[in-house]
Each structure stands twice: as structure tokens, then as C-alpha cells.
Amino acid sequence: MNNDTKRIVLGIEYDGSQFFGWQWQTGKRTVQSVLEHALSNVANHSISVICAGRTDSGVHALEQVVHFDTSVQRDLHAWVMGGNRYLPADVRIIWAKPALGDFHARTSAIARFYRYRILNRPMTSALLRDQATGCAVPLDEQKMHLAGQALCGTHDFSSFRAQGCQSKSPQRRLYFLKVYREQQQVIIEVCANAFLHHMVRNIAGVLMEIGVGKQPIEWTRALLDIKDRSQGGVTASPKGLHLAAVYYPERYGIEKHPIFNQLPSDAKRFD
Q1: What is the pTM of this model?
Q2: Fold agreement between 6-108 and 111-243
Q3: Which fold has domain 6-108?
Q4: Per-residue pLDDT at 7 exceeds 90
Q5: How many angstroms separate the Cα of 236 from the Cα of each of 2, 93, 145, 212, 240?
Q6: Could you report the per-residue pLDDT of 37-53, keeping only the tens digit for each?
Q7: What pLDDT is stored for residue 166 in this prediction?
Q8: How is the chain split into domains, by residue range?
Q9: Is residue 56 annotated as a catalytic residue, yes or no?
Q10: Which residue of the set 4, 56, 69, 140 is catalytic?
């Protein structure tokens, strides 16, 4: 960046049900394309944004983090209110901050936190039809939680990545995984340094198979050892998946979600 260029950081929420994912695609409605269009209208010049983590078609975000560079002078309120003026109703800018230091929305992130919602009842929902995955068979959330603990730590997650995943390495560090029930919903919460393509949805699919009794608790450990995606079961629907928060070192001034207080101390060594 030159001396006249400023980097702005935004927090974005969106309902992904009517989008073909985050990333710009010719002729398709994506979150990146509508956001860049809105910000370009505010800036009166073309804006390109970079996000903390790309989401797939149908996946939602409670707080996606993005940055962009611009040479125009606008106050932070203008980026939020002006941007929202040009955005469709299923995307909203919820905050804006000036970037500090060498901040980069993707490479500066230490951890990503996802939440997966399962509506566990016989009837589907009129209100949650695009926000939660349905499962009519009773789930044993305690078995799902126990099975998920085998995934915590640094592992080769080849059995949990999409076959078309382009990541150079299948190794990721999973900081914690929790499964619990809220009345008729079973919630999976998972946090890692980064995720492979479809990794969370594949984890959810495996845990649901265990939760309905089709597989034993030990299946997660066995899949890690096999390192073969073809043995890993069904990829869960994108409907229940939400990018909930991204964690950055304290020096960047991005407010930390309370869930990140659970990170091990060595995970925050860059703070």
C-alpha cells in the first residue's frame, strides 16, 4: 500500500441460503460479489475484499471478517451505513475498524470457530428450514461429544476433507469440539487453526452417524487412522453450518468472541 491507501476491516453477517458461497463466480450470486458492489458504490471506485475464510454455497456467517484497501476518505460510519444501503437484505455489515499494523483478514487469523445446528425432531421447521439441518431420528449428543474428542489436537484430516480439496496439507490443529443439546436442537461447536474444504460438514456427518447409533464412538479415531475420505460417510448439509467467529492476535484490536477463552495458551502465542 502507498501512503494514501488505507486498509479497512469489516465484520459481516449473512444468510448463505441464497448464495453460491462466498467466492466471486461469473454469473452467480455470491457474498463477495454483492459486498464488493456495495462498497464500490460507497467508494466511487472498484473495491476488492479478502475474507478470513471462504464459505460454501448455503453456509451462513455470524461474523465473517474481511478487509479492503482504499485511497478515498470515508468515516467508519459511512462504510457501515453506506455499504448496507447497497447490500441485499441477506447480508449486513455489522462493524468497521481501521486496520492496525500488518493486519490481513486471512493470514493474521489464529483460529476459526464454526457452529453446526441440527434440528432433532420428526417435523421440519418453517423458521429454521435454511438455518439448521434436520434429523428426525433421536440423537445421542453425549456419544457425539465423546466421539468428537478423538479429533482434538493436530492430525491428518484426510478422511474429513472433500475429495476436491486443494489444500497442500491435510494437517490441521483442532483446538476443541463440543456437542450439546438445546431443547430440540443439537449443537456442534468446533474451533481450529484452519479448516479443510468440507471439513466441518464431514465431521458433522460422522458425528450424526454415531449419534443415531449406526457407528460406534471409536469410529472417529478409526477414520483418522485410515486417512481415506471414501470411508468417511455422508457430508452433512450446508444448511446448519455457521461461521461464528474469527480470532486475531490482540494487537490488531479485533474484539474477541468469549469462546476463544477456551483456546490453549500456546495457541495464543502470537498475541
Answers
A1: 0.93
A2: yes
A3: Alpha-Beta Plaits (3.30.70)
A4: yes
A5: 45, 28, 17, 14, 8
A6: 999 999 999 999 999 99
A7: 76
A8: 6-108, 111-243
A9: yes
A10: 56
